[in-house]
Design goal:
Glycosyl transferase; 396 residues; Rossmann fold; six-stranded parallel β-sheet; alpha/beta; Glyco_trans_1; glycosyltransferase activity; single chain
Length: 396
């Protein structure tokens, strides 16, 4: 049997959520019979070579050498715009014509459709999510996509349009893989139609966990993640106060970040009363043990659109529901799981959502379905999309 050679490309070896999916995609492909996998990321670059994040010629040259040496049948790209830059797309396209390999890209953020990869714009009133209906319209030009001022915003937009004019990702890749329905909608609003749904696998591989059941009218909500402005923790605490902490016993914060000191100072009275508790950053096993023991639900108050908020899936893995801000991908991602309760940014909505959450937790017969987010499902779907093991002809 001829081996199928797969080249997997990403900006970083390790950094965040995209890198976890990068790792899992490599592991899934390597576990497939007859598949030879090679990685290309920042660890493959000469740290002393001159490089620019705007156009990294050194990365393009290094990738060219890797392709010529490995001669892949499939090329899969995760992220490229932070380190490798759009320069690598030209290399991928050029050798695709020469070698005939198939190409795929997973969209981890919104850089393909908008100037700001978080799909955010800024006004004097704060941070906002760009509505999908605004994409591919002149309205986006008037929205400020950068916090760094008008000049930086203008330069960012000029660069984005220049890269789009030079090379369009949708023409380089045979299929653009979407981890969420919201991402797929955003791409299609931009006229990118060669999209396919492929949910990211959850990094949490746990044995079946009994679902949390509670008859208490007051619940412990757990925030897990980076304590940063875009995650919306400040706004959620303010909202909880405006709602009179209805059905909320306390808010538990697991994680750290630039907003922690500000929050501890600003809400010192809540910290003193035990209604706001910081646990800091815990190792994963310790975190899961603490969540099972203490939390009644996870809360995801993010202000940005997100993409594939796997915290919803991970909450279900722990037998917990998720209280989710009704914005962006959070509105639609994981609806089939059965553990979501959504709220909007007004006190009456939060009070209603908390009442719904109390009722949800009292139900003993409920079920959560996370099968679409398992590593096995991801590997099977990935092999099908990339036509690995189906007898498809492969270039020499």
């Amino acid at each position: 049997m001829q081996q199928c050679r797969v080249l997997v490309i990403n900006d970083f070896v390790q950094k965040g959520g995209a890198e976890e999916v990068y790792r899992q995609s490599v592991e899934s492909l390597r576990a497939m019979p007859g598949v030879d996998v090679r990685c290309f990321d920042n660890s493959c670059l000469d740290p002393h070579a001159p490089a620019s994040p705007a156009w990294n010629s050194a990365a393009a040259k290094a990738l060219e050498e890797a392709i010529k040496d490995f001669r892949p049948h499939r090329v899969m790209v995760h992220n490229y715009h932070s380190v490798l830059s759009a320069s690598v797309l030209g290399t991928i396209a050029r050798y695709k014509r020469k070698l005939g390999y198939s190409t795929y890209m997973t969209c981890h953020d919104y850089h393909v459709v908008y100037y700001n990869p978080l799909l955010q714009y800024y006004t004097k009133d704060g941070t906002h999510t760009v509505p999908l209906e605004a994409l591919n319209t002149l309205r986006t030009l008037r929205l400020r996509s950068s916090k760094k001022g008008l000049i930086h915003d203008a330069l960012r937009k000029c660069y984005w349009h220049a890269m789009r004019a030079l090379i369009k990702p949708e023409r380089v890749f045979d299929a653009v893989l979407c981890p969420s329905p919201f991402m797929q909608q955003a791409l299609r609003r931009r006229g990118i139609v060669n999209t396919v749904m492929l949910p990211n696998p959850s990094a949490v591989d746990l044995p079946p966990t009994p679902l949390k059941v509670s008859t208490s009218p007051r619940l412990n909500l757990a925030f897990v993640g980076r304590v940063a402005p875009e995650k919306g923790l400040v706004q959620f605490i303010e909202l909880a106060q405006a709602a009179g902490f209805a059905h909320i016993q306390r808010i538990e914060v697991y994680g750290d970040g630039p907003d922690r000191a500000v929050i501890e100072q600003r809400f010192a009275s809540l910290v003193a009363s035990g209604q706001l508790v910081f646990f800091g950053r815990l190792a994963q096993d310790d975190l899961f043990t603490q969540l099972r023991a203490s939390a009644d639900a996870l809360v995801l108050p993010s202000l940005c659109a997100e993409n594939a908020p796997l915290a919803i899936i991970e909450a279900a893995s722990l037998g917990l529901p998720a209280l989710v801000h009704d914005v962006g991908s959070l509105s639609t991602f994981g609806n089939e799981v059965g553990n979501k309760v959504m709220f909007r940014s007004d006190p009456s909505s939060l009070r209603a959502a908390m009442s719904q959450l109390v009722e949800h937790l009292s139900q003993t017969g409920r079920e959560y379905d996370i099968s679409e987010y398992s590593s096995r499902h991801y590997a099977t779907r990935l092999a099908s999309l990339m036509r690995i093991g189906d007898g498809s002809a492969m270039p020499a």
